[in-house]
Amino acid sequence: MYALLSVSDKEGIVEFAQDLVKLGYRILSTGGTLKLLEDSQIKAIDVGEYTQSEEMFDGRVKTLHPKIHGGILYRRECECDCQMAQQKGIESISIVCVNLYPFKQTIERTDDFGEIIENIDIGGPAMVRSAAKNYASVLVITDKNDYKDIIESLRTGNNTLELRQKMMIKAFSHTADYDSTIANYMNKRFNGGFGERVFITGQRVFQTRYGENPHQKGALYEFGSFWREHFEIKKGEPSFNNLTDINAAMKLASSFGKDAKAVSIIKHGNPCGFALKDSLLDAYIHALACDSVSAYGGVVAVNGIVDLPLAQEMNKIFVEVLVAGDITDEALAVFEGKKRMKIFTQNAPYVSLPNDTFDFKHIQGGVLFQESDNVQESEIDNATLVSESAASENQRQDLKIAYIIAALTKSNCVAYVKDGALVGIGMGMTSRVDASRAALAKAKDMNLNLNGCVCASEAFFPFRDSVDMAHCNGVSAIIQPGGSIRDDEVIAACNEYSIAMYFTHTRHFLH
Questions:
Q1: Contact 323/345 with Cβ under 8 angstroms?
Q2: How large is the greatest C-alpha to C-alpha distance in the chain, in angstroms?
Q3: Choice among 235, 268, 338, 505 that is catalytic
Q4: Domain CATH number, residue 120
Q5: Using an 8 Å Cβ cutoff, are 50 and 28 in contact?
Q6: In angstroms, how far is the first alpha carbon of the chain from the final one?
Q7: How would you label 269-278 residue by residue, b for 16+ Cβ within 10 Å and e otherwise?
Q8: Is residue 239 one of the residues assigned to a domain?
Q9: What are 99's strand-pairing partners?
Q10: Contact between 39 and 132 (Cβ < 8 Å)
Q11: How many CA atoms are closer than 13 Å to the CA of 436, on its beta-carbon side?
Q12: Which residues contact 477 (CB under 8 A, 6 or more apart)?
C-alpha cells in the first residue's frame, strides 16, 4: 500500500507518516516533505526515484507522471483498468495527503510577482483532484487537522466510503478556494478587481440555530481566520441576526481608535446609542440615554474591557448581546442570572474587525460587487467650511462622531451629537427631513437637551427645511457631503442662523 505525502504546511506530517508506516503503508514523497521525513528517520521513497523521472524546471514538474496519476486514478473495480495498471507497472496509491503552496500567504507578504507566480501550485491541485475524483478507492487528505481522526479510522478498519466522500468534498473545496484566490488576485492586479468573473469563498466557522427567521437555515463563513481566532464565546450562542448586529456594533465602536473609550448600542442593524467619553462607564451611560427604549434587547459593543462597575450598570436592563475587547471574571459573574444574554470577546484591550477591500450584496439572480466604503480621516479633517460661522474644537470633534455614525447607518440618515454622545438619530427614511423629524422626536421623548448639538448627514440636504428644523432645535454646526443643486439655499439658511456648515464632498449611502 502506498501513501503519497507532499505538503507545504508540514505541521503534524512527521507524526502522521510514522503512524502510516506502523499501519503498513509505504511512503512516497517529494522535496521538502521528503527531506523532513528522512531527517526524522522515516523511510520514504523519492517520487523521482519511484517514477524514474527526475524533477525538472526547479521543481515545477515532479509528480505529473502516469505512475503517480495512474496509481491514483485507475478504477480498482474495472478489470481493464487493473490489467492496464499491471501491464504498465503502475501500483495502487491509496492515500494522497497534499496541501498546497502558500499562495495566499505569499500575496499578503510580498508584491514580487515572480515569487507570487512560483507559489502557484500545479502538481498539488492535480493530485488532490485526481484522488478526490477516485474517492471510491482513494483517501485524500488536505487538512492537517484531520490527521489524528484519519489514523484512528485506518487503525480501526473504518476507512469507509462515507469517510472518503467527506474527504473528497473537503478536497474539491480546498482546490476551488485556492483557484478562486488566484483568480481574484489576478483580477485585482490587472483588472482593478473587476474581472469577467468574481469568486466569493469562505470557510464555515459555525452553524447558527437558524437564519434571519426560524424557517431558514444559516451559518457564519469567513474569508480569512478573524472569527475563529478573535471571537470567543463567553456566554450563549450567537444567532444569524446577532452576528449582523455585532458586526455593526463593532464597526462603530472601533471607528475612533484602539484607545477610544467608545460604546455603541445597535438595534436591528442601526445605532440607537453611541458615546465617546473619558471612561467606558460614562460612555455606556450616555449611549444608553440616547434611546433606552430601543436599547432594550439590543447589542452593545464596548471598545475596551468590561469591569465590575460597568457590568453592574449594564445589568440594570436587558441587553441581549454584549461584545467587548474583554471582560473580567467579576464582571462576567454579574450576568450569570441573565439566561438569555450572550457575551463575546476578542481577548484584547479593544474591539476590531478585518478591513475587507471589497463588499457585495445579494440580489435575486446575482450579487452586486463593489469596493468597500470607508470614512477617511481626510474627509473630516479637510472638510470645507462653507458658512460664515466656524465650529469650535469641541464642535468639530462632535461633527466627526456624528459623521461617522451617519455613514454607518441606513440611508436616509441624520445624526445629532452633543458632548461626544449621540442624542438623536433618524435612519432608513424615504426623505431626509423625515429622518430629521424622527431623530428630534425621539430626543424629545428621551428628554434630551439638544441645545448646542451638531448634526451630520451621510448625503446632501436637498432643501433648506432640514436646516430650519435643526435651528429650531438648537443645532450649532452641520457636516454633510454637499452637492445639491440647492446648496446655496442651504448655506444661506446656515448663515441666517449662524450655524457652522462643512462639506466633505463624499457621500456615504448605506442601502
A1: yes
A2: 96
A3: 268
A4: 3.40.50.1380
A5: yes
A6: 58
A7: bbbbbbbbbe
A8: yes
A9: 7
A10: no
A11: 25
A12: 391, 395, 396, 398, 399, 454, 455, 499, 500, 501, 502
Q: What is the pLDDT of residues 161-176, one digit of tens each?
A: 999 999 999 999 999 9
**Residue 174 catalytic?**
no
Instruction: Return d(Cα 457, Cα 409) in angstroms, integer.
Output: 10
DSSP bridge pairs for 264: 274, 301
User: Which residues lie closer than 8 Å to 167 by C-beta, 6 or more apart?
Assistant: 132, 135, 139, 140, 141, 142, 146, 150
Catalytic (active site) residue 268: yes
Residues 148, 39 share a domain: yes
Tens of pLDDT along 319-334? 999 999 999 999 999 9
Confidence band for 54, pLDDT divided at 50, 70 and 90: confident
Q: Is the pLDDT of residue 55 over 80?
A: no
Please check whether residues 174 and 245 belong to one and the same domain.
no
Of 133, 188, 235, 338, which one is the catalytic site residue? 133
| Residue 202 forms part of a structural domain | no
What angle do helix axes 123-133 and 66-73 make, rounded to 10 degrees? 30
Both 237 and 175 in one domain: the answer is: no
Triad 232, 237, 241: Cα angle to 5°: 105
Cα–Cα distance, 204 to 4 (Å, whole number): 28
Q: Are 442 and 302 in contact (CB under 8 A)?
A: no
Q: What letter does residue 61 receive in the DSSP assignment?
A: B
Measured between alpha carbons, how far is 211 from 221 in angstroms, rounded to an integer?
13
pLDDT in tens, 260-296: 999 999 999 999 999 999 999 999 999 999 999 999 9
| DSSP E strand boundaries for 442-489 | 454-457, 477-480
Global confidence as pTM: 0.89
Are 244 and 268 in contact by the 8 Å Cβ rule? The answer is no
Same domain, 300 and 419: no
Q: How confident is the model at residue 12 (pLDDT cuts 50, 70, 90)?
A: very high
If asked whether residues 17 and 87 sit together in one domain, one would say yes
Whether residues 236 and 157 share a domain: the answer is: no
Query: Residues 340, 345, 350, 356: is their CA dihedral positive or negative?
Result: negative
Please give the Cα distance from 391 to 170 (Å, whole number): 58
Give the integer Cα–Cα distance in Å for 79 and 326: 63
* Domain extent for 142: 2-191
| The three grid cell numbers given for residue 55, joined into one nine-digit string | 524533477
Q: Which of 156, 63, 162, 144 is nearest to 97 (CA)?
A: 144
Query: How many structural domains compose the chain?
Result: 3
